[in-house]
Request: fold
Amino acid sequence: MIISGKELSAKLKAEMAAQVAGFPEKYGRVPHLTVILVGDDPASVSYVTGKAKASEVIGIKNTTIRKPATIAEDELLALIRQLNADDTVDGILVQLPLPKHISEARVIETIDKSKDVDGFHPLNVAALWQKQPCTLPCTPKGIIKMLKAAGVEISGKRAVVIGRSNIVGLPVAKLLLDENATVTIAHSRTKDLPALTRQAEILVVAIGRPRFVTADMVSEGTVVIDVGVNRDPETGKLCGDVDFAAIEPKASVITPVPGGVGPMTICCLMENTIECFLNSVRDKNL
Ligand code: NAP
Reply:
């Protein structure tokens, strides 16, 4: 069974569009997402364009602010503070990665926690690990939604997550743990990775290496979630971290690249923007 993130996200976006359509009457406005794009890296431009398109489909107001790669860190932080203070802005997202002279950590912690639609702010991360209300990071949230939509029982399963980044690996592992899976996190120093991955009932791969996971690393019936987004060195086309053609016949459930986790990430960004909007209007008692 191939889980199409494209189809699931289209369904969820239609539901959100119906919800947002009622907001002007109820709250006097629609949610507003502001995306800051620094420089003109083609992948970042494409991600930002995808976010603007999804906003349009749902009826969320999207403002994209483009700044040159030479922008000083202080100027970028001042812009974020200005958006933090703007009551008409519900979500702020700074597209990563940033040029080397800008500290991503400082940028992330400058975004007001209540407008941190990516769920990267240290207070959101801390709240996630303490099981407090928080904005969940989009990719891990999307993965759990996909598993549930596919009817995968997570509780009690042996899950292996390859990758331990703050953006994907660690929060995915935490969300799987919260769903009562028994989770092992693997990384570049893990010894005998294939022996570990063959034990997985749910395997999440977030490495960033084309077709790194081969068929011999996966047991029959495994649920395989491929987070990787890479360029195939031979064809130049997008591909995942998993050798899809070889593993699909063995997996009980698998996500494709493209059209798997990626669309769900954007879908969850939209959901987070709506959540931030609703928290804001409720706080103002509108
Ligand atoms: P990252 O920060 O570079 O982390 C990569 C992780 O992979 C690290 O934890 C690293 O281990 C581990 N790793 C590298 N080589 C390994 C090996 N040979 N064996 C085992 N583990 C290894 O990357 P990321 O930000 O998590 O992203 C991972 C991939 O997901 C990328 O392709 C990225 O483009 C993609 N991504 C997709 C979406 C989406 O929406 N679809 C969203 C975010 C990211 P160490 O910690 O030991 O270095």
User: Anything to note?
Assistant: The chain has a mean pLDDT of 97.
